[in-house]
UniProtKB/TrEMBL annotation:
Heterodimer of LeuC and LeuD. GO terms for biological process: L-leucine biosynthetic process. The gene is leuC. This is 3-isopropylmalate dehydratase large subunit. Binds 1 [4Fe-4S] cluster per subunit.
Length: 415
């Protein structure tokens, strides 16, 4: 019977010939990730269930990224808990401060390949489906069971496949595409479904751009985000990993597949307005002064984003009364930006450049906003209180819109 990528990957992981949407399966996990914020609860739960040894220390990845360096006694204690666990369990893939955001460094460091099942104690783990893996976020207590047993139950999801066509206009990016899609289908438009991104527009995108799409699948309720592997995927994976992999593709006549056609040829820069990700408007329809611009996160903190922003900011200044925070998504991205002179452009423009981490994205670290303040962010969520005060407002945009807006002190599209 014809099957989707998700059905094929989960069948393999469950040791079955085939499964179909709606089935409950116990799937073996290829990679399990937790970080400094969600990790301590996983460790405590692991100990509460009486587990003493993780199933496979080589398959667990633990980066510090949410509150690094530690900004409070509580976060310092969280780091201590995780370092102790790493040492006791002989976790091979531990990345201390300055490595970068978890969803950026896992692909960079070769932990993600096509056909795997990847779980992370973080909702944006769906990012890794850009490389053809079934990757999804789970709770910290579920992660404790994964640590102990190496498997987890899943309900096999149906699939919404977004067939995206059309050539993007100048200054329109993958972020605009995904914001527009979420605006169309709503925050619950793909609840517990796999969100596949396909079509000529996606084929022309870089791996970084595809990661923007899959990263935000969760923002329309998706269980995972996926892009079928192609030559770009294989070239990326084989340049970074020596793991074996298997490529799966969706059969277009699969019964659980729903195809949604999206034409982006006339799309203009988009912005998600407070306080919901599906409250999406064209930038030209928004008239809003801003207090802060945040360029970074696991959505748009990659080198291509920094290049796009630097091109606009070069020789310009951040508007008086507006502050700009630039946080590269990983040490690799930071180093490239340094070598290319991008960081100097940001500093000369008046921006603050910080070390790789999540920054203000979670509302718990560097650069949070206060009551009444407005943030324009390249991250993925704009819920009330997401980046600090519940009396603040967060707008979401591409890196290019963020840079142009920083210069003007209000939300604008690049000329």
């Amino acid at each position: 019977m014809p099957k989707t990528m998700s059905e094929k990957i989960l069948a393999k992981a469950a040791g079955k010939d085939e499964v179909e949407a709606g089935d409950i399966v116990i799937a073996n996990i290829d990679v399990a990730m937790t970080h400094d914020l969600t990790g301590p609860l996983s460790v405590q739960s692991f100990e509460k269930i009486g587990a003493t040894k993780v199933w496979d220390p080589s398959k667990i990845v633990i980066p510090f990224d949410h509150q690094v360096p530690a900004d409070s006694i509580d976060s310092a204690n969280n780091h201590i808990i995780m370092r102790k666990f790493v040492k006791e369990q002989k976790i091979e893939n531990f990345y201390d401060v300055n490595a970068g955001v978890c969803h950026q460094i896992l692909p960079e460091l070769g932990h993600v390949v096509p056909g795997e099942v990847i779980v992370g104690a973080d909702s944006h783990t769906c990012t890794h489906g850009a490389l053809g893996a079934f990757s999804t976020g789970i709770g910290s207590t579920d992660m404790a069971m994964v640590f102990a047993e190496g498997n987890l139950w899943f309900k096999v999801p149906e699939t919404n496949r977004f067939e995206i066509t059309g050539e993007l206009k100048d200054n329109v990016y993958a972020k605009d595409v995904i914001l527009n899609i979420i605006g169309q289908v709503g925050v619950d438009g793909s609840t517990y479904k796999a969100c596949e991104f396909a079509g000529e527009t996606v084929s022309n995108m870089s791996i970084s751009d595809r990661m923007v799409l899959t990263n935000m699948a969760i923002e329309m309720g998706g269980k995972t985000g996926l892009v079928e592997p192609d030559k770009k995927t294989i070239d990326y994976v084989e340049s970074r990993s020596n793991k074996a992999y298997k490529v799966f593709k969706t059969d277009l006549d699969a019964p659980s597949l729903n195809i949604i056609d999206i034409d982006v040829s006339e799309l203009e820069p988009q912005v998600a307005c407070p306080h919901h990700v599906d409250n999406v408007k064209a930038v030209s329809e928004v008239d809003q002064e801003i207090d802060q611009v945040f360029l970074g996160s696991c959505t748009n903190g990659r080198i291509s984003d920094l290049r796009d922003a630097a091109k606009i900011l070069k020789g310009k200044k951040v508007a008086k009364g507006t502050r700009m925070l630039v946080i590269p998504a990983s040490k690799e991205v930071y180093s490239k930006a340094l070598d290319e002179g991008l960081l100097k452009i940001f500093v000369d423009a008046g921006a603050l450049v910080s070390a790789p981490c999540c920054g203000p994205c979670l509302g718990g670290h560097t650069g949070i906003i206060g009551p009444g303040e407005v943030s324009l962010s390249t991250s993925n969520r704009n819920f009330k209180g997401r980046q600090g005060s519940p009396d603040g407002k967060v707008y979401l945009s591409s890196a290019a819109v963020a840079a142009a807006s920083a210069i003007e002190g209000r939300i604008v599209a690049p000329e």
